[in-house]
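TL;DR need structure tokens for one chain.
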Amino acid sequence: MIHYKSAKYTVERPLQIGGLLAGADPALVAAYGAFGLPLGEAFQLRDDLLGVYGDPAVTGKPAGDDLREGKCTLLVAEALDTCGGADARLLDELLGAPGMGVPEVELLRSVITRSGAPERVEARINALLHQALTALDDAPLHDQDARRALHRLAGAATARRY
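>> reply
TL;DR here they are.
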């Protein structure tokens, strides 16, 4: 889902289509893909973290909605993979449970935090961002204003806002 929906559909393909419409050669279109795919994955992982830990006043979306909706994001999967029996049962029982309120969201948030999953997802975001920026640095892009704009886009798409 992260790879095809978020990364390809939301970031990689729009960059490539824009490049093609602007007359980019095949090497530059490929470079947009090499930049956009890891950036799109990093963007989705950031969104997953914000969906659990984000400040609604900053993000514009309610914190905990992903937990209420029962989304098995990489963050949740990482937590399930490493947390102990009681915490794994809590995640399994409460994730997406009907009528979930603030106390249950807080409990799930603490389970996920204790598991170390947020730090592992942050590390993955940083690795993907590095991969994207390296691809951008290597891109045959002669317009330095465009290169700087894409660099700012990468920073904005992966910024920690919680």
